[in-house]
Each structure stands twice: as structure tokens, then as C-alpha cells.
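Objective 1b. Sequence-to-structure analysis of ATP synthase 24 kDa subunit, mitochondrial.
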Amino acid sequence: MQLYASQVVLPHESAIPARYFSAKSEPELKGDDEKAMLKNIFLDVKKKFETAMGILRKEKITIAPEDPAAVAQYAKVMKTVREKTDLWTESQTIKHAIESETKDIPDARGYLLKLQDMRIKQGLKDELGAEAMMMDALEKIEKELKKPLMRNDKKNMASLMAEFDKINQKLGVRREDLPKYEEQLELKIAKAQLEELKKEAEEAMDTQKKREEFKDEEVPDVKSLDIRNFI
């Protein structure tokens, strides 16, 4: 998250794609126009859902989070779903969330504190201690300025960004490796989702096993289940 943060710490609303614009930037709609808009939204969601289901009915998914090959295949399938339905990747979601939550924060300190709050709410850990390093870098610059650093102060914000780059370098994080980090993130998410699927499948089979009519049936291995048969 810190790497995305260092990319969007400067205010740059014009860089946000049109589809990211919030509802408040759209004209107020009433009557038939509002009904037409809601209908179009419903049809769009319906189309994306049907597209996703079509892909999931064709692709084999093995519920085996302990198997790297199964995780990679699941991640590949979900990537196809996102691409065909024009949904965001987790990386895009994180970046957009940071942009949306911080766009009205004028100072760098408020930005970093908001970022910390977002991380905590998402249950993420700052295992590398990057936040403390970023705050120390800000302290250094504000000490020289003798005042709070504002995000529209391009000169001194550039200095802060340079300090962030040094932190990323120290931690072994490089901007040019961002695609690799995004791929690793998607694999972690895929594994977590497969673990959740496995848990739910085992709980469902355990519940069924307790029913009188199924007590003598053998419980299948979760890995042998074909999700396509349940869609």
C-alpha cells in the first residue's frame, strides 16, 4: 500500500480516469432520465454477471489453496473475469481508494495519517515499518520548513517524494517492479479466496453429513469438487 501511496500523494485529480468520477460530479437527474440511468446500470450489471458466470462455467477451478498451481489457475480465471467484465484489479482498487479518501486532504501529514487509518481498517500490517519511515521523512522536511508541508507545495513535495524513493530503495521496493508486486498481490488474494471456498465447502459437507439421509455416504475430498457443477 505504501508504494501506491507514494505515487498518489500529490493531488492530481486530472489524472483520474473518467469512470472513477464520483456521483457528485454528474448532473442531477430526475424523472424519466433517472429511471433510464437506473435501467442502464441494472442492464450493465446483469451483463457483467452473465459474462462472469459464463467464464466460471467453462474454466476448471481446483479448491486447493495449498497447491501453487491451483492458486495460479484460479488467479488466471479471475483475471479473465475482470478483463471481460471491466472490473478493477485489487491494485487498482487500492490506488483508487487512496485517491478518493485523500483528495480533500491539504497537508502531507494528514495524508499519511489517513493512509495509516485505511491500512488499519483493512486489517493490513505494516510489516516493513514503511509508515514510520515515511513519517520520519516528513518530520525532516517540516523541521527544515518550520511549518506543515502542504500537498500543493510542489517544490517541497518533490523533496518528500525523493525521500520516499529512498525508503522504497532501502526496503528493496522498486517502482519498475510494480507489475511483479501486483501479480504477487493477486496470487495472495487468490490463495485467500480459495482458502475461504475450501472452508465453506468443508462446513457445508460437514452439515450435510450430519443429516440422517447422508450419514452413510463418504465425504468427498474438497479438491475433487468441480465448481462448474454448482453454478
